[in-house]
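Encode chain A's predicted structure.
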Amino acid sequence: MRIVSGMRPTGKLHLGHYFGVIRNWIKLQNEHETFFFIADWHALTTAYKKTQDLKNHIRDVMIDWLALGLEPEKGTLFIQSRVKEHAELHLIFSMITPKSWLEWNPTYKDMKYNLLRLSEIELQFRGGLRDVVRQFLNMIPYKVEDFERFEEHLLEDLSSTFISALFEGEIEPELLKKINVSKRDFYDTDTYGFLGYPVLQSADILIYKGQGVPVGEDQLPHIELSREIARRFNSLYGDIFPEPEALLTETPKILGTDGRKMSKSYNNAIYFADTEEEVETKVMKMFTDPQKLRKNDPGRPNVCPVFSYHRLFTPQDKVEEINGDCRSGALGCVDCKKIMIHSLEEFLKPIRERRHQIQKNIRKVEQIFIEGSISARNVALETMEQVRQAINLK
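Encoded structure for chain A:
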């Protein structure tokens, strides 16, 4: 099976990247033909104003990928923007993709509203409108074939209208001050690139005739869109593209040092580039069970972020011992963290050492991705020859 996947370069990688993505990629590279790319064009989707660090971010991802175990001998590692055919296929796909497919993509609005902290307000609008919309639908003199679907479309459109009106100053201007989001913030994300990035993502996959795409559940709508675009193209111009399958992967939830999802934006991540001292400092500040205030208080490992790390990094027999001692009050949080630091360092130390060695020869690293991009482009060129011929542009 041919596997295709990419990662946006946002800086050095952390534990969440490894357990959420890279660990699965390493397994896949040993079993399938793989194309893994650094999605630098996708980085412009939301950070087009902040490109000053993009080159360094790309370099950091290169180093971390190799240090974590991705091997150029086993798969193709490359940079998206070095294969210009991605952009050409994206342009062609954009001509045949209905705008409604993008607007109704749930991930589009979720990403936009989460980025601007608008999700709660949008839910309030929808909740307040639902009864009104149902009354309206019961009053119209036409038969509604799919009541629930039509209701959702109306709620979607009306809530979007309310949000737009909010940023135009037509609804309670003080509300924007409360959530600290400006009109400029709202329209800065209202770009074609943000709306249409799933089309570019489809081009990323289909230009290699990808058959499988490893994703989490939140990315399923994007893979379904890729399948829709492939079907539409094939029906218009002839069978060129396979319909890629989503390869759902179960990944452990990696919490950040503050108990939230690990994320660079939350400043709660443990990076593979961190020194041993930096890791120790971060772990010693980690949140634990809020009810365990004193060393001898009985704890609840199931709600403690530190214990979730023990499950990943500490030997199983020791995990059971820690579980029992925490619950009985025999183990305090400080000592528990010290044990976890040792276990975590057993995992991080060899990666840190590999990273250090790889970083010494950055020219070799860059050459690996240059050669990988050439290999990827050779495949992309073959596909584009077929595409151009199919649509009579050749």
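The first strand starts at residue 2 and ends at 7.
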